[in-house]
Amino acid sequence: MHLYLSFMICEYFSFVLGHSEDTDSLQYTTENFSVELPKSNHFVMFYAPWCGHCQRLAPTWGKLAEMLNEEDYNIKVAKVDCTTDRQICSDHDITGYPTLKFFKKGSSDGEKFRGTRDLPTLTTFINEQLRKVENEEAQVGSLIVNELTDENFDNHIKEGKHFIMFYAPWCSQSQQLAPIWQDLAEMYHTNTSLTMAKVDCTKFKSICKQYNVILYPSLLWFENGERLEEVHGERNHGTLVDYIDEKLSEDDYYREDQKLKNEHSNIVNEDGVTELTASDFENGIQSGITFIKFFAPWCGHCKTLAPTWESLGKKYINNNLINIAKVDCTVQENKSLCNDEKVGGFPTIYLYKNGEKISEYSGSRSLEDLSRFVESHLGHDEL
Question: Which residues belong to the signal peptide in this entry (predicted)?
Fold first, then answer.
């Protein structure tokens, strides 16, 4: 839902001035912060109760929460008390109060608000961030998930492997699966032997009737123009990744890619992330692009990044030009390596190309931005 809030400001502005407490924003703690944050877009105030600036912002923040913390809006307004939940604030580099950050859904990296803390400026900032989110989602959807129709369906499936979701827009289960399907398309879009697609059965009834689709969503696997099987049972992100990987592992192209990938380094985990050590580091970075996370297991930021890094590894597990790797700098034999590579904090992320360090990554640690950075270093002849 588009969010344009300027029309609401006048209605509430006098009310804000007359209230001194915030009872409407969500109070997050160590117990629920990491659970709730990925579920929606969030605007979070990190504060200290004794802070005068925080106290002055409280009524405005409360009114912002009253306006937005409803089912119809795709954002939640929350706050974290840094005097009682210090670890959260440490993990997010909070050094002053109040600090306001916007977190897009699924990301643990926030965009810091730097403007004046009045209601019009805050709502303008939220609008800008939500427009960015919408634009990113629209771009990913249009470029990666194939929308099949009566005109292009047969031609699309006649060669290769295709995983297709047959759905109805009004179906709640279709709606719940949609973001998972989008994420899977993002993960596998560099795999040249597979396409992810979808068919709207309310528009293209003949296709759905041809393949006996009577329930929504139905997930069908096609190879070289033939329907092979339908996926039944639990359909969450993990089970679908396992299913796709199993189907791809039957392919000679996939096995050859895996062979090349394994030759790139000594240890490649099932998640596609190479574990490098001082002894195999030089060999591990010799060919293609190697994107390396230097980390410490105790580091909060490293723990936050870990699941995204695994998703990045899985995304490129079939691409022999890109290797996603990590180095544990707390292991004794790796300490000198981390010093030599000038690792000054955790995590430090470097990109190497054909044995040479090219760049340090310092952007957003979302899967989309990390992928975009890696692929920007592929030459045109490598695409």
Answer: 1-18
Enumerate residues 6+ apart whose C-beta is below 8 A from 147.
Answer: 197, 198, 200
Lowest-pLDDT range, 26-40, 130-144, 230-244, 350-364? 130-144
**Residue whose pair of structure tokens reads 């969450």 in the numeric block:** 236
* Tokens describing residue 363: 């952007």
| CA dist., res. 362 & res. 68, Å (int) | 31
How far is Cα 186 from Cα 22, in angstroms, rounded to an integer?
40
Question: CA-to-CA distance for 84 and 169, rounded, in angstroms?
Answer: 44
pLDDT tens, residue by residue, 269-327: 557 899 999 888 999 999 899 999 999 887 778 888 989 999 999 998 888 889 999 99
Report d(CA 102, CA 27) in Å as an integer: 16
Assigned token pair, 64: 């912002």
List the beta bridge partners of residue 220.
Answer: 164, 230
* Six token digits for residue 273: 């992330």
The pTM (predicted TM-score) of the whole model is 0.39
Largest CA distance in the chain: 70
